[in-house]
Amino acid sequence: MKQAKTWGSGLLFFLVMTVITGVIYTAVCTGIAQLVFPYQANGSIIEVDGVKYGSELVGQQFTDEDHMWGRVMSPSTGTFTNDEGEDVLWYGASNLSPAGEDFAAGVQERIDEIHAAHPEKGDEPIPSDLVTNSGSGFDPHISPAAAEYQVERLANNTGKSEDEIRAIIEKCTEQPQFGILGDARVNVLKVNLMLDGILPVE
User: Fold this and answer.
1) pLDDT-based confidence at 78, cuts 50/70/90?
2) Domain-by-domain residue ranges, the chain?
3) Residue 151: helix, strand or coil by DSSP?
C-alpha cells in the first residue's frame, strides 16, 4: 500500500510539473514574446507588400553580379518539407578541417570566382569572410571591408553611383552591441533588397 502511494505521488508530481513547465511556462513565454517582440518571435522575416523575402537572421546565396555577395554557404545534401508542402534546402556547418585539401580547394574556387567578378581589384587582398563560410553555414552578415570590396562592381552593374552603394551599405551596417560586443557587420539581404528598390534607403 505504501509503495502504491509513493508511485501515485510520483505520478501526480510528474503530471503537475509537465503541465507547469511544458504547457503553462511555454504558453506564458510565447505570449510575452508575441506581445513584446512579435517581429523577432516570428523569425525576423522581412516582408514588403505581403511578400516575404526571407529572415534578416539567415543568409541567402547571391551569385549574380547585380547583387552583393555574402559568406560562402554550406548547403546540406537534402531537403525537408515545410507546412506548405514545399521542399526547403537547409544549411549547416561544413565541418571541413582548415588544414584539409577539400577546404583549401573550396577556398581557391571561391577566390577564383571573386577575382573573375572583380577584375578591377587586381591583386588586392580579398577579405577572408568572402572566401570562407561561418561556423553556422548561413551567416547573413559580412564585414564592412567585404562590403566595400564589392562597391565598384555593384556600381558598374546596377547603374547606381559608388556613393549611393556606400549609403546603402551604411544603412545596413549594424554596430557592435552596446558599442563593445562583436564587430560592425553588414546585412547582405537588406543591402540587396535596397539595391532592388524593395526596401527604402531613406
Assistant:
1) very low
2) 2-38, 43-195
3) helix
Radius of gyration of the chain (CA): 23
Cβ(143)–Cβ(183) under 8 Å?
Answer: yes
DSSP 46: E
Q: How many CB atoms lie within 10 A of CB 167?
A: 15
Distance CA 165, CA 130 (A): 18
Rounded CA-CA distance 108/105 in Å is: 5
Reported as a pLDDT band with limits 50, 70 and 90, residue 79 is: low
53: left (phi over 0), alpha (psi -120 to 50) or beta: alpha
Q: 1 is written with which cell numbers? A: 500500500
Q: Residues 168, 148: contact at Cβ < 8 Å?
A: no
What pLDDT shows up at residue 180?
A: 83
Q: Where do runs of H (alpha helix) occur along 63-181?
A: 101-117, 144-149, 151-158, 162-171
How large is the angle between the packed helices 162-171 and 151-158, nearest 10 degrees? Answer: 120
Local structure of residue 99 (DSSP, 8 states): T
The structure's pTM equals: 0.78
